[in-house]
Amino acid sequence: MGIFSFLKRQKADRQANAQDQAEGADQVKVDEPELDHKLQKTRSRFTENLLGFLRGKKPVDDDLLEELEAQLIMADVGVAATGRVIDALQARAKRDKLQDSDAVREALREELINILQPVEQPLEIPDSDSPFVILVVGVNGAGKTTTIGKLAKQLQDGGKSVMLAAGDTFRAAAIEQLQTWGERNDVPVIAQDIGSDSASVIFDALQSAKARGIDVLIADTAGRLHTQSGLMDELRKVKRVLTKIDDNAPHETMIVLDGGTGQNALSQAEQFNEAMALDGLVITKLDGTAKGGVVFAVAEKTGLPIRFIGVGEKVADLEVFEATRFVDALIDNEGEA
Ligand SMILES: Nc1nc2c(ncn2[C@@H]2O[C@H](COP(=O)(O)OP(=O)(O)O)[C@@H](O)[C@H]2O)c(=O)[nH]1
Ligand SMILES: [Mg+2]
């Protein structure tokens, strides 16, 4: 799908959306910039080098594939995902006789989508009598608190009641950031003083959410303690105490990764997953100078569902992750910017 049909589809999606939420319709922002526009910087990083050299209609040979391989690695796609793409392209070159750069480009597009398709698994919140608990983890600065704010607003607009727990008790600013956000958007925030026990804040919040019949509790957490193992111990303790109220809580342990940090984001996903058994991830800052390739690296190496992508600092800048849409926005299939 090219950029034009992509735009049309987005518009149609949004109109359908606005109709779905008739009473909340005034909150649906119709003039919000399109995903492909938001990904523009990321796209130009990704495609300038990666696809630029394809434009010259070179014959498809081993040299071209080698160059493509190098470009994918440089775009943060990672060794594993790059290897898979190149192997697939080599097989296709033999089988389908990729004639020119357009054919390579289309084949590349399909292989990139193949990597992301399995991790396109949106977060689903079932109707239930007890709160659905989302525990948000990740290193400082990744975008946890911002993502929580955006997500809370979107869930609220979708008719869910939401409560937040200020589980990052290590920095006063972190508690205030969440509280300010809650006040602005009419979302209750459960917080205690700085330095209090994160697990007990989140435990209290779940009790309160349950008593008030809240649909979704989203818990913020600290991104750094004195040691990495201290952080993992603390987060495991949070999980443990939650099960005292609800065997299935947290229902979603979701890591937030800064898409601009390349292979670091990948190793964070792997480390947290080992310690915490993650259910899903969010990759933020894809509107910035991120090269975008990290999305493929994380998908290939972890296989974890990508729930959302962050494409800006505003409340609307959180998108449900869709593989085809993402790849098309990234590689700008028709060459139009
Ligand atoms: N451009 C951009 N900035 C983001 C995005 N998500 C978060 N940020 C910014 O990243 C910074 C750190 O975010 P914060 O939520 O405080 O991170 P936390 O330490 O993980 O809670 C803030 O300045 C946010 O505005 C995003 O998707 N795009
Ligand atoms: Mg924070």
Tag the structure with descriptive keywords.
single chain; 337 residues; alpha/beta; 12% strand; disordered N terminus; disordered C terminus; binds magnesium ion
Q: What does the secondary structure layout of this molecule look like, with pairings?
A:
Layout: H1 3-20, H2 35-38, H3 40-52, H4 62-74, H5 79-96, H6 101-116, E1 132-137, H7 144-157, E2 162-167, H8 172-185, E3 189-190, H9 198-211, E4 216-221, H10 228-242, E5 252-258, H11 263-276, E6 280-284, H12 294-302, E7 306-310, E8 318-320, H13 323-331
Helix pairs in contact: 4-5, 5-6, 5-12, 6-13, 7-8, 9-10, 11-12
Descriptive notes:
Helix content is 51%, strand content 12%. It has helices spanning 3-20, 35-38, 40-52, 62-74, 79-96, 101-116, 144-157, 172-185, 198-211, 228-242, 263-276, 294-302, 323-331, and strands at residues 132-137, 162-167, 189-190, 216-221, 252-258, 280-284, 306-310, 318-320. Strands 3-2-4-1-5-6-7-8 form an 8-stranded mixed sheet, with helices on both faces. Helix 5 (79-96) packs across helix 6, helix 6 (101-116) runs antiparallel to helix 13 and helix 7 runs parallel beside helix 8. It has 337 residues and is an alpha/beta fold. The radius of gyration is 21 Å and the shape is elongated. It has 13 helices and 8 strands. Strand 7 and strand 8 (318-320) form a beta hairpin. Mean pLDDT is 85; it is low at 1-12, 18-32 and 333-337. The protein binds guanosine-5'-diphosphate and magnesium ion. Magnesium ion binds next to helix 7. Magnesium ion binds at residues 144-145, 168, 174, 220.
